[in-house]
Every structure is written in structure tokens, then in C-alpha cells.
Design a protein that fits this description.
Blueprint lengths: L1 H19 L14 H19 L10 H69 L5 H11 L1
Pfam family, one: IQ
GO molecular function: calmodulin binding
Family: Belongs to the IQD family.
């Protein structure tokens, strides 16, 4: 294990030393690149080098008309955003009103159904009582039924 790290250190040391000398050329013994491809790669590297060395010019100062146009556009975009927000807010209010009405309608239907179920339970219970108790006269049954229903 110690030997493997030694050869790696030697290579690394040579690589670090060699990078400081820019005069050395790399010689490629065998390459699949044709002369045309070499020319294009050389041209690309030259263009890349010239781009990096060029200094970028500062943008030209804005004129009064440009500044006015920017201000007008900003104001108009703000106007459109406020109008869209107002429309959205009114739409949300409308949805709340509609959903509130739907909820109230659903609650009203539920209460009606519960009331009907209660009346049905009372009538069934009364029939059970009347059927089981034969001592109650017909007259009393009619009065009880009137009061229950």
C-alpha cells in the first residue's frame, strides 16, 4: 500500500511542477483527429481566447425617452396587476356567497329529513303502543293520535 501512494505522489509532484512551465508542448503520438478537425479546434480555441481577453463595454446611458417609457410601462403593469387582483377578489367573494347559499340549502334539506324521520319514529312507536295495549278505547285512541300527529 505504501508503494502505491509513492508512485502517485511522484506523478502528482511532476504534474504540479510541469504546470508551472508553460513552454512545454504536449506531443500526441496517435490521434484520430484529422487535419480539418485540428484546424477547427484551433479556430475555436482562438475565438474563445479572444472573447475572454476582450473587455466588455458598459451599456450606453439611457435617454429621457427610454426612462419615460420604462416608467410608463411600470405604471401600466401595476395598473393591470391591481385590476386583476380586484377581479380575483370579487370572484372569491362571489364563490363564498354561492357556496354559503349551497351550504344553507343543504342544511335546510338535512333538517327537513331529520324532522321527517322524527315524525316517522313517533308514528311507529305510537302504533306499537296501540297495538300492544287493548285496554285503551277507540275514543281515547283517536284523541291520542290527534295529539301525536
Amino acid at each position: 500500500m505504501a508503494r502505491s501512494s509513492n508512485w502517485f505522489k511522484r506523478i502528482r509532484r511532476n504534474f504540479v511542477k510541469g504546470s508551472s512551465k508553460s513552454s512545454r508542448n504536449i506531443i500526441v503520438v496517435y490521434s484520430h483527429i484529422s487535419s480539418h478537425e485540428e484546424e477547427t479546434t484551433q479556430l475555436i480555441s482562438d475565438v474563445a481566447a479572444s472573447i475572454t481577453t476582450q473587455q466588455t463595454l458598459p451599456p450606453p446611458p439611457l435617454t429621457k425617452q427610454d426612462l419615460a417609457a420604462i416608467e410608463i410601462q411600470a405604471q401600466f403593469r401595476g395598473h393591470l396587476a391591481r385590476r386583476a387582483f380586484r377581479a380575483l377578489r370579487s370572484l372569491v367573494k362571489l364563490q363564498a356567497i354561492v357556496r354559503g347559499g349551497q351550504v344553507r340549502k343543504q342544511a335546510r334539506i338535512a333538517m327537513h329529513c331529520m324532522n321527517a324521520m322524527t315524525r316517522l319514529q313517533v308514528s311507529v312507536r305510537a302504533r306499537q303502543l296501540f297495538a300492544g295495549d287493548s285496554s285503551i278505547s277507540n275514543n281515547n285512541r283517536l284523541t291520542l293520535q290527534r295529539h301525536l300527529f
